[in-house]
Amino acid sequence: MIQKKLAIFLGALLLLLFSSSLLAQENAMQAMGKANAKVAKAASRKNHWEGPSEGPKLQTKKRIVFIGGDMVNTVIADLFKGTKEAAALAGWEVLLIDCRGACYQGAPVINQAIGMKPDGIILAGVDATTQAKGFAKAQEKKIPVVGWHSLSKPGPVEGLFADIGYNPREAAQIAALYGVTEANSRTGMVILTDNSTPYLAAKSAAIVEIIKQCENCRLLSVEEFVLPDTANKFQILMEDLVKRFGSRWTHAIAVNDAYFDLMEKPSVATIIAGNKLKGMAAGDGSTSAYVRLHNPNSVQIGTIPEPVNLEGWQLVDELNRAFSGVAPTGFSMPVHLVTDQNLAFDGGAKNMFEPENDYRNQYKKYWFPKN
Questions:
Q1: Residue 187 CB partners (closer than 8 Å, separation 6+)
Q2: Please, is 3 exposed, middle or buried when counting C-beta atoms within 10 Å of its C-beta (0-12, 13-18, 19+)?
Q3: Using N-to-C axis directions, what is the helix angle for 308-323 and 359-367, rounded to 10°?
Q4: 63-166+308-332: CATH, from 3.40.50.2300, 1.10.268.10, 1.10.10.60, 3.40.190.10
Q5: d(CA 131, CA 109)
Q6: Looking at the domain that runs over 169-302, which CATH code has it been given?
Q7: Cα→Cα distances 240→129, 143, 270, 281, Å
Q8: CB hemisphere CA count around 357 (13 angstroms)
Q9: Phi, psi (rounded to 5 degrees) for 190
Q10: Which residue did the predictor score with more confidence, 20 or 295?
Q11: Spatial contact of 1 and 12, defined as CB atoms under 8 Å apart
């Protein structure tokens, strides 16, 4: 079934990438093949470990402060659970600061974490650029900080030992490419974006870039709706879009699943029911998104889920490397695309992305060496 979906994708992708008649046919076929391979890889089973195979022994009895951008976000909440699961193996204490979406107001939240006398700090879903003063104080006290979705791309930066997660541009590109597979002369696209952090802004820009290249896509509007804005504001936005575009609006591509959570609310669902929308999210694989993908009548037809339990283990691994004076891994899980065609694998039956790549034992091999 996935192969059938990808076959449909080829026709749309040809229109997307090669609308100019001046391009040679052989060049078109080469690029089409590369793009097809990229999407096919994203949709494939994640049952092979592609992460680190060696590293320092896991140190014991550390105190970690986990700063969550908003723990109402189930993805960040699940990341916290994965972190605690891995940390418990070495008797680490994991303390929580829940910013409730307000980490950027007032003094850097890292200062609050430092006051809790930690050995290390995790910054989850918080813009690193707002925490410069806090980073300086953490460095002064030799407290390593690792992030999740804190930068516009994964990797180390001044003050941050490592930032993990998908490359946001790659995640957005896969989402956008999949979203145009059904593009035809009647396709009307609305893009729902959020530029409140560098990570989300990078996603937004990549989605817009891809859709603007799609000859068969009518880009009706790019709407910035910053979460967590109220559901009432979202209802007003939906009313406005339906009034402006009517039945011309057929597809929605959003930076994450939360927009489709709002579309499910009865007051909003009634407004958009006549459009028979199809929607694609560029993250993050929430439980509610998986439930929607199991429902053939749902607006949402795909998501780009992150393996947050695995990433919780990776956060512990990166902190342990910092404690041990070892360089960060630079590891980022390959982007995964989930649709109704591959829900049977990699945790889909449990409404989550849980790669079947034995990551727990892969980390334990060098965390707890037998010799």
A1: 180, 216, 217, 218, 250, 251
A2: exposed
A3: 10
A4: 3.40.50.2300
A5: 7
A6: 3.40.50.2300
A7: 34, 49, 14, 21
A8: 21
A9: -120, 130
A10: 295
A11: no
Q: Where are the beta strands (DSSP E) in the chain?
A: 63-68, 93-98, 120-124, 145-148, 162-164, 187-193, 217-224, 251-254, 278-281, 300-302
Q: How far apart are the first and last CA of the chain?
A: 46
Closest CA to 225 of 213, 233, 217: 233
> Partners of 121 in the beta sheet?
65, 145
pLDDT tens, 158-176?
A: 788 999 999 899 999 999 8
Given a contact cutoff of 8 angstroms between Cβ atoms, the answer to whether 306 and 42 are in contact is: no
In which residue are the tokens 């575009």 written?
245
Mean pLDDT of 278-299: 94
Residues in the chain: 371
**Whose structure tokens read 């997660």?**
165
- Conformational region of residue 243, where left means phi above 0, alpha means psi within -120 to 50, and beta covers everything else: alpha
Task: Give the residue among 225, 355, 226, 351 at the shortest CA–CA distance from 288.
Answer: 351
Closest CA to 173 of 316, 17, 321, 51: 17
Domain map of the chain by residue range? Answer: 63-166+308-332, 169-302
CB atoms within 10 A of CB 191: 24
Residue 15 confidence (pLDDT) above 90: no
- 170 SS3 class: helix
pLDDT, tens digit, for every residue of 237-260?
999 999 999 999 999 999 999 999
pTM: 0.86
Domains 63-166+308-332 and 169-302 share a fold: yes
Comparing 84-98, 129-143, 313-327, the range with the smallest average pLDDT is 129-143
Token readout for 89 is: 């193996």
- pLDDT of 13 > 50? The answer is no
For the cut 80, the answer to whether the pLDDT of residue 222 exceeds it is yes
